[in-house]
Amino acid sequence: MDNLVSTEWLAEHLGAPDLLVFDTTKYLPNEPFDGATKFVEAHIPGAHFFDVDVVADPDATLPHMIPSAARFEKLMGAMGVTNASRVVFYDQKGLQSSARGWWLMRLFGHEKAAVLDGGLPKWQREGRPVASGAPAAPKPTTYVADFVAGRVMGIGDVKRVLADKSALVLDARAAGRFKGTAPEPRPGLPSGHMPGAANIPFNELFAADGTMLPPDALRARFAAAGAEGAPALVTSCGTGVTACILTLGAVRAGLPEPAVYDGSWTEWASRPETVKATA
User: Fold this and answer.
1) Annotated catalytic residue within 4, 105, 107, 237
2) Burial class (CB in 10 A: 0-12, 13-18, 19+), 6
């Protein structure tokens, strides 16, 4: 199963007994929408809602940090996912938070996961069917996770790789937030970036229609940020959601798979001992 599937592919395979489709939309604190509410208004037929704030550590003080393997198993089983399932994630904004769902599945060893290229906007532009209302609860299953530790980093890991230059950190936030000239969407959090990080705003990986660029164009964009020849790559953003787009893009570009810094800038900027660079 490819890690990025087209609307044509999904339309052809929709309804297959082993295929599950999830809306993974996550709006920022400064956006006046709620993903779960808008899902009920319009969603791809047969889809369910995958809440990244629920598939997370409920005790963490940072937003939607990764859950334990046991919690992930419990939640996936409740959502009807088995180890044999093919899982496709989409979101209401195109291709943003859906990559977080794809990455979470891979983090826990599930390789048969994909992102819908162009998301719900492309699906609707093409006149494909949508459903409304709350879907029936899925039939519970048993799911077993295989945690892949190398696909995630904590702040201690990131401090180390920045200090010894054993990895390049790629930041998916907008250029103004990265440079410290635009505010963060979370009140009280300073903007700026980790010393030595490079900036690839996630939307620079998209074509005009909101689909992901082809592999050669992706490779060129990563090369421009210094990713070619880097000993390893780490992706970051505000809270570990759009960082997953860079990880998906790097994989599609043929680069070594980057780890995601789960706490991302929200964690780094809130710690008094960390250096916050600007410009």
Assistant:
1) 237
2) middle
